[in-house]
Amino acid sequence: MASVRLLSYNIRSLRDDPEAVARVVRALAPDVVCLQEVPRFWGWRLRRRRLARACGLRIAAGRRACGLAVLTAPHVRRVAREFHPLTPDPGLHRRALAIAVLEFGGRAGGEAGGEAGGVRLIAASTHLDLVDEPRLRHVHEVVGHLDRAAARFRAPVVLAGDVNEEPGGPSWRVLTERFEDAYAAAPSGGEFTFSARDPRRRIDAVFTGSRVRPVACGVPVDGDAPTEDYVKATDHLPLLADLEIDAGPVPPGR
């Protein structure tokens, strides 16, 4: 069993206050960060690296296209990474899925499923469309990619991202038929993630697959949560999930 703290955060291409973004991430001390709207123009590679360094993290997955990234703490080992562009729609922003296969604890090497003493997890970040039909089509593509990754690496899955739809919508229902909504399972802190100035909608989510148990999930509002930086950082609120990961391999087809 491994305890993993995962943060999902839409950072709006760092158009607001990049230093506030880094302060939020550092204060929440995640093991894994799934980012959306990462910079992809005008020095994107340098800006991404600077953000990772400012957060004390490493880049584990993501490409220039589609503005997605997965960052990890130094103690987390990346086993593999994938990037899957989703089917394009003329006139709409290209969507994708960034996947990082990670190992917590144990020694380097060994087979998937923890035989080397570590616990493996597939952490994926996505940002779905504002338009209903492409969003629903892309959700099915995302689930297919994640099912194949789980079978290939024999590891459990966590999907995090900006769904651009609230619970009960068609795309959300597809996801909750396959995964567990971590906030619904273990609510902790604030529910609404958008907008940062006037949060009234829950459009960001963490979905957990087989052998991942949500312990707590929500927008951090108590304790050392850097709430004064939320509005400065971006237009979304950070969504934090504490998870427990089973060390055993995922059964085929799960």
Describe this structure in words.
The protein has helices at 18-28, 44-55, 132-153, 170-178, 182-185, 227-233, and strands at 2-10, 32-36, 58-61, 68-72, 76-85, 96-104, 119-127, 157-162, 180-181, 204-208, 212-218, 239-245. The longest helix has 22 residues, at 132-153. With 254 residues, the protein is an alpha+beta fold. The strands form 2 sheets. Strands 3-4-2-1-12-11 form a 6-stranded mixed beta sheet. A 6-stranded mixed beta sheet has the order 5-6-7-8-10-9. Helix 1 runs antiparallel to helix 6. The protein starts with a strand and ends in a 9-residue tail after the last strand. 26% of the residues lie in helices and 31% in strands. Residues 108-115 have low confidence and may be disordered.
Keywords:
single chain; 254 residues; alpha+beta; six-stranded mixed sheet; 12 strands
Distance between the termini: 18 Å
Helix and strand composition category? alpha+beta
**Helix proportion range:** 25-40%
Mean pLDDT, to the nearest integer, reads 93
Order of helices and strands: EHEHEEEEEHEHEHEEHE
